Structure formats: C-alpha cells, structure tokens
C-alpha cells in the first residue's frame, strides 16, 4: 500500500493554524470576512511550505483548489448591486488568474534556457577560463568563482542550478587537486574557503538581476501592487540600480571570507594549469556552446532595452517575449530539444507554485488585508516616535533576519514583503529607494543559514564547513552586504534620482 502524500505532523500544524484563524480568531475591524478567510488559507499554505508537509508545487495545486471551492475571492454583490450570477466560474478564474502573469513565465522560460548552459558545458568552460587567468593564488580562485557566478547570473534564474549545479563542481575539482577533502579532514587547506565563496557569491548575484533567482519577479509584482503600478521595476532599471552595490559587495566578499576563514594554502600556481588542462580536455568551443553564447548575448541586449534606446520605443521587446525568443532559438538550432524542455521539471514546477502564491498574495492585497496590516504595523512603529529612516531600518532588519525561520525565500517574500513595504511607505520611506532595498534584502537574506535557499544544502552538504562555521560566515556576510547596499546603494540611487 502506498504511503500518504503528505507529512502528518507539519500538515496537521498547517491545518490547525488555518482553522484557528478561520473559525476561532474574530475578524478584526476594518477587515472583510473574505479577506480573513483567505488569510487563513494563506497562512496554512505558508506553514505547510515551511514545514515541508508536501512539495511546494503540490501545495500550490491544493491552494488553487481551495480558492476555487471556497470562493473567497468572489464578492457577494456585483458592480450593479445584484448577487453574482456564476460565483463558481468566477472563483476558478480567480484561482487560475496568475498563470497568465508574464513575469512568472519569464522565470519559467529562463530556467529552460539555462538548461542549455549546463547541456553544452559553457558554464564549466567559463569557470575554468577565469581560474586559468586568475588562479595563481587562492584569493584569485575565489574571485574567479565569483566572476563566473556574475557572468552566468542574468540568464540562470535557478540560483541553485547556478551555484550548486555549475560552479560547485568546478570548485570541488580545484579543491581535490590540492587534496583538500572533507573525508580526509583536509578541508581547511583550500576547500572550506572556496566552498564559502562559492555559496556567498550566490545571494549577491541573485540580488543583481531580476532573472538571477526565481522569486525576484514576485518582488517586482508585490512592489507594483503596493504602489498601484506607479513603481514597476523593469529588467534594466533593476540591473542598473543593483550594479554598483552588487559589484562592491562581490569585490568585498572573497576578502572578508579570506579574513574570517583563511585557507592554509594561499599560493596556488598549479590551479591555473589545472584549469588549462580541463579546458584542453573540453577542446575548442563546440557548435552548441557558440550558439548558446550568441543567444546569451542577444538576451542581455534585449533585456537591457538597448534596441529601444537606439531606435526608439517602437523597437522595445517585452522581457518575457525576449525569454521566448531565446528558447525558440535554442529549439530551432537544436541546442535544446523539446524533450530537454519537458524534462526541466524545475521550470514547470516554478510556473505552478509561483502562479498559486502570486494569486493568493494578489487577492490578499485586492481584498484590503495587506493595506490593513501595513497600516497597523506602520502605526505601531510611528507611535515609537521614529523617523522614516529609523523605521525603514527596523523594518528591513526584521524582514532580513526573519529568514532564520524560513527554508524558502519564496515563502518568506510572499508572507512578509508586501506588508513590510507598504508599512515603510506609510511611514514616509521613499518608494523607489525603499523598494530597491527590500528587493536586494530578499536575496541577501539567503546568506544566513544552511537551509536558506536551494543552493545552501548542496554546498553545505559537501562537507567543507561545520554548521557553526557556516552560520558565522552567514551572519558576517549578511552584515557586510547590508551595509554595502544601504551605504553604496543609497548613494548610487540618490545619484540616479531614485530618492
């Protein structure tokens, strides 16, 4: 007999929380019963995601079903003052509404495109190329890994695939060549340092591009909804805003980790030769790599809006349409087959769970619950007498370090970002600058733990660091990154006229 499809204890906790909010806690003044009941389901789903009661995609299917069946998104009366004629049809349309969201498909299609980087071997080639140039010192290898991450980030929305699937095997190969092996107790030679650089490159690059990690479009969506679409971050705006603070953070990160956990081996003249040998084994760039590189360039040009800058707005290409162009070219050229696309389970999974979570978050906003909560939070902070600077700082710190309680950046962003951003606006924070800061923190919080994002268990699981070392490095880097984005980002955004 097959086992049940869920973990009983976390599922029971999630269900208990949902029932408690729905049936026991009174609906607060200023909140409609519909909004409160949707909140009950939302809290239950987020609790189930945190407790890993089921895979996030499966939970999302259940969320869609619950919204459709309970009809919580459907008003009792229509615009004409009469009862809604077909509430069941309206409810299922509401439940499926976010499957048409272009931002969700931007990430889904981009994950499919990133399969080409893995399949052709272009990702590994980029990593070994930079090590062949800068790999004569351990610090140089660290910068090579970070630079490889940065190059791949714009077209690799799965930060796990980028840090864990592409860069991590390169990092392990270099460590092994210096006999730095956790099983032999020699991880301190070079492997521990490189593993930490491998990991801590990931949150920074994720903050630098909308297409560098899957939850970023959700951030864009929540910020747009909180400002009635007055602020809708484009790919180019996000990339330009995060460029300078991101580069400064990437420059400092290998140095900080070198100081916190210095490697025993500091000179590595053989690493450059090792990388050259690996490149020699790969041989010249094959047809697939050349096509992948060309498509990579096309995507960057279109995402950055260069045709529109040169020829005018008539030549602008929507970012999601750009992703479809990239995937179409890969399919037409034969670099990817339709079977490759079908096997990219992460992409299809992302489309499903993103759609469900965006749908629930959107209707919480439409039904007024986010506004009510943010006003309550804002008033609470306002009563302390803080100005907007201190209030914004407090909100950002709570938002960032609450990630110790989350194993999913998506769950964290969905649960907290909308209300915290709206509270900041209520307290007088500049909408664009505060939006960019909370967007950056949504990725930077991944530094903290060994379960903070999908990349973490991959690299931590390879055994190069202890739990204590990982958490210490995570906290140190969270402080450094936060300071860089607040100070350098604040000055940069002021220069750009964002506040």
TrEMBL record:
Domain of life: Bacteria
InterPro entries: CitT-rel, MFS_trans_sf, SLC13A/DASS
Cell compartment(s), UniProt: Membrane
Topology within the bilayer: Multi-pass membrane protein
GO CC annotation, single: membrane
Family according to the record: Belongs to the SLC13A/DASS transporter (TC 2.A.47) family. DIT1 subfamily.
Protein name per UniProt: C4-dicarboxylate transporter
Annotated organism of origin: Neisseria elongata
Origin organism lineage: Bacteria, Pseudomonadati, Pseudomonadota, Betaproteobacteria, Neisseriales
Record gene name: ybhI
């Amino acid at each position: 007999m097959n086992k049940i499809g869920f973990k009983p204890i976390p599922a029971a906790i999630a269900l208990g929380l949902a029932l408690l909010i729905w049936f026991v806690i009174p609906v607060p003044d200023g909140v409609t019963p519909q909004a409160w009941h949707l909140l009950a389901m939302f809290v239950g789903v987020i609790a189930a995601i945190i407790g890993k009661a089921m895979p996030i995609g499966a939970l999302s299917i259940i969320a869609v079903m619950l919204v459709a069946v309970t009809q919580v998104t459907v008003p009792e009366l229509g615009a004409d003052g009469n009862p809604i004629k077909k509430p069941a049809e309206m409810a299922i349309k509401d439940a499926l509404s976010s499957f048409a969201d272009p931002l969700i498909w931007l990430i889904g299609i981009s994950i499919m495109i990133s399969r080409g980087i893995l399949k052709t071997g272009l990702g590994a080639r980029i990593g070994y190329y930079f090590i062949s140039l800068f790999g004569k010192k351990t610090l140089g290898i660290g910068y090579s890994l970070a630079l490889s991450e940065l190059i791949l980030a714009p077209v690799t929305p799965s930060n796990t695939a980028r840090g864990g699937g592409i860069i991590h095997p390169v990092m392990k190969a270099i460590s092994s060549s210096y006999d730095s092996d956790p099983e032999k107790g020699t991880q301190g030679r070079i492997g521990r340092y490189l593993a930490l650089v491998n990991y801590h490159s990931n949150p920074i690059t994720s903050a630098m591009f909308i297409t560098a990690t899957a939850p970023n479009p959700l951030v864009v969506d929540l910020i747009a909804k909180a400002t009635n679409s007055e602020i809708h971050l484009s790919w180019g705006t996000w990339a330009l805003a995060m460029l300078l603070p991101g580069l400064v953070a990437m420059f400092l990160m290998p140095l900080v980790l070198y100081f916190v956990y210095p490697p025993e081996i500091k000179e590595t003249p053989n690493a450059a030769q090792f990388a050259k040998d690996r490149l020699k084994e790969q041989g010249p760039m094959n047809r697939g790599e050349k096509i992948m590189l060309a498509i990579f360039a096309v995507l960057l040009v279109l995402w950055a809006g260069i045709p529109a800058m040169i020829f005018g707005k008539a030549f602008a290409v929507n970012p999601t349409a750009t992703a479809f162009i990239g995937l179409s070219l890969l399919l037409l050229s034969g670099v990817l087959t339709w079977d490759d696309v079908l096997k990219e389970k992460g992409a299809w999974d992302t489309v499903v769970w993103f759609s469900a979570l965006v749908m629930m978050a959107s209707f919480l906003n439409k039904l007024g619950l986010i506004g009510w909560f943010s006003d309550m939070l804002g008033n609470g902070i306002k009563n302390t007498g803080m100005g907007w600077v201190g209030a914004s700082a407090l909100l950002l710190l709570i938002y960032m370090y609450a990630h110790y309680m989350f194993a999913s950046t998506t769950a964290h962003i969905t649960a907290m970002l909308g209300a915290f951003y709206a509270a900041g606006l209520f307290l007088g924070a500049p909408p664009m600058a505060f939006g960019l800061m909370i967007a950056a923190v949504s990725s930077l919080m991944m530094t903290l733990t060994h379960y903070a994002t999908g990349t973490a268990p991959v690299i931590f699981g390879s055994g190069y660091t202890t739990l204590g070392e990982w958490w210490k490095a995570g906290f140190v880097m969270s402080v450094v990154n936060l300071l860089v984005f607040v100070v350098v980002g604040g000055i940069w955004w002021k220069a750009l006229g964002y506040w």
